[in-house]
Amino acid sequence: MNDLPLVAITGASSGIGEAVAKRFSEAGYPVLMMARRIERMEALNLPEALCRRVDVRDRAAIASAVAEAEAVYGPVDMMFCNAGIARLADIGRQDPAEWDEMIDINTKGVLNSVHAVMAGMMERRRGTLFMMSSIAGRKVYPDHTVYCGTKYFVHGISESLREYLSAYDVRVVVLSPGIIETEVLDHVTDPGTLAAYRENKAKIGGGIGPEHLAELMLSAYSMPQTVLVQEICMTPTRQRY
Ligand code: NDP
Description:
Blueprint: E1 6-10, H1 15-26, E2 31-35, H2 38-44, E3 49-53, H3 59-73, E4 76-81, H4 96-124, E5 128-132, H5 145-166, E6 171-175, H6 191-203, H7 210-222, E7 231-232
Parallel strand pairs: 1-2, 1-4, 2-3, 4-5, 5-6, 6-7
Helix pairs in contact: 1-7, 3-4, 4-5
The structure holds NADPH dihydro-nicotinamide-adenine-dinucleotide phosphate (NDP).
Residues 10-17, 35-37, 54-57, 82-86, 105, 109, 132, 134, 177, 179-180, 182-184, 207 line the site of NADPH dihydro-nicotinamide-adenine-dinucleotide phosphate.
């Protein structure tokens, strides 16, 4: 066991969360990995990693996974509030059940993740929260209506949390990526929206790998605690909107 602090990641079973778990683990950090597909996280077989089946809509389940990991590795010094789904669709024909799901996971799930570690960070007067928004939290797309709403929510609470937590020396970093190659499109059920997204993506030569974002996050996290990278906005060079 080394003396690097514990990092916690929601949505660590694929895509960006998985890439961040791998990169921080490679850098020597113990990692708490949370998602519903526990077998995917366990298959990575990372050293000093605790994998827990957690649905971020379940506030108690996140708190319990954090308590379990902290008992082994000490306090969580970084929480990546990353779990999210993108049910991109034409709002005029989208089933409102998809709104509920996105709002519960992408907004309340993020708050639940913050809640599990915030008091401890304030008490210790150190810690870093990485908040997963999107380029869709900076600008709207007409076929991403509710998804954009959830990501604007993340931008809004992050800015407020950053001001609130600055007095406690806790850092809040917003992530606003553009198109990253992950499994995110698997959750789009509207064929028209999916086809348009794929066409745009193909036109710009595809998305970028999640490992680039993971690298920048490690770099921002490794800055002295007095230095805050407030936002990371990373897109493919050819992505115009
Ligand atoms: P993936 O679909 O590959 O990963 C999503 C992750 O979130 C999975 O690990 C999934 O795990 C987890 N997750 C989803 N719902 C829940 C839940 N209820 N409880 C716990 N975990 C959950 O996509 P990405 O890596 O792309 O997505 C990660 C984040 O990045 C999302 O918030 C997304 O909105 C955001 N984003 C992605 C962009 C992209 O282009 N890829 C661009 C901008 C932002 P499991 O299903 O096992 O629970």
